[in-house]
Structures are given as C-alpha cells and as structure tokens.
Design goal:
The chain is globular. It has 160 residues and is of the alpha+beta class. 28% of the residues lie in helices and 38% in strands. The protein has one domain: 2-Layer Sandwich (Alpha-D-Glucose-1,6-Bisphosphate, Chain A, domain 4), CATH 3.30.530.20. Strand 3 and strand 4 form a beta hairpin. It starts with a strand and ends with a helix. The longest helix has 18 residues.
Length: 160
C-alpha cells in the first residue's frame, strides 16, 4: 500500500495530503464525521482530541479541542459547505491560534478495488498562512495521525 504523500509546494497556498487505506470509502467517510471515531485518530500520539461538536450538513459547524501532555491547548473550527457524503466533504478550517486565516478543505474518498484513496486538499489565503499552519501541524504529525487512522480502520474492517 502506498505511503501518505504530503505536497506543499513553495509559494503555493495549498496543502495536499493523499493516503491509501485498506477499507471501504463508507467507513472512511464515517471516520471523518463520527465524533467517537474522530477522537481516536485526529491528532498525533501524545495529543488528546475532544469533539466539542460536529454537525455534518450544509451550513453545519464543527469544533475540535486538543490538549497536549505538557498542558498546551489548541482548537480548530469550521463550517460545512454542501452536505458531506462518501463522495466528499467541503468545509472551512480555522485554527484558533490564527484567527481570520480560514482555509477551505476538500476531502475526497475514491474507492479502488479493496482500497480507498483519501485526498485532503486545503487552500489557504496565502502561502505564508499555509506555512504558519504547517509549523503547528507538521508533516510528522500528519503522518502519525494517518497511521492512527489506519490502526483504527484495522480494528473496524471485518475480516473476510
């Protein structure tokens, strides 16, 4: 199975994360929208995520709260655009530590035989804003979150 690819081209206000999973797209969609599942994988190890709320419908909002072992706190929030479905999710993403710097995230779930390719594409107001977000959510953290998602899916996917 392919590894996770992270693309953040210099000077381009976009972050693209592509990962392949041995799971059906309906289950991946659920992992991206079910609060109980999100809390199990959405942050790297050592961080705890609590879902304040998630209302996956057009105009619905979401807010995720995080805490680190050292006591550090962080939060993200946004609004869904269109009704999320296994075809994809479109939402805004704003880090409370960078108010007013709103990204637009599109997540797609492409099922291929026994795997699903998930592509997360986030466009920020500027390349500088994207780079500032990457300081908080660096590539190692992204890879670790994806690994946690793969571990969760392995527990949830029925064995045939």
């Amino acid at each position: 199975m392919a590894t996770t690819q992270i693309t953040a081209e210099r000077g381009v206000p976009q972050l693209v994360v592509t990962s392949e999973f041995a799971a059906p797209r309906d289950l991946l969609f659920r992992a991206y929208t079910d609060p109980g599942l999100l809390e199990q994988w959405l942050a790297p190890r050592g961080l705890t995520v609590t879902i304040d709320h998630v209302d996956p419908r057009h105009g619905g909002t979401w807010r995720y709260l995080g805490s680190a072992a050292d006591g550090g706190k962080y939060a993200f929030h946004g609004v869904f655009h269109g009704t999320p479905s296994p075809d994809g999710i479109v939402q805004t993403v704003e880090f409370d530590g960078m108010p007013g710097r709103v990204g637009l995230q599109t997540v797609t779930f492409a099922e291929r035989a026994a795997t699903t390719v998930v592509t997360q594409n986030i466009v920020y107001p500027s390349a500088r804003d994207r780079d500032r977000v990457l300081r908080y959510d660096n590539a190692e953290d992204i890879h670790e979150s994806i690994e946690r998602l793969k571990e969760l899916l392995a527990r949830l996917v029925p064995v045939s």
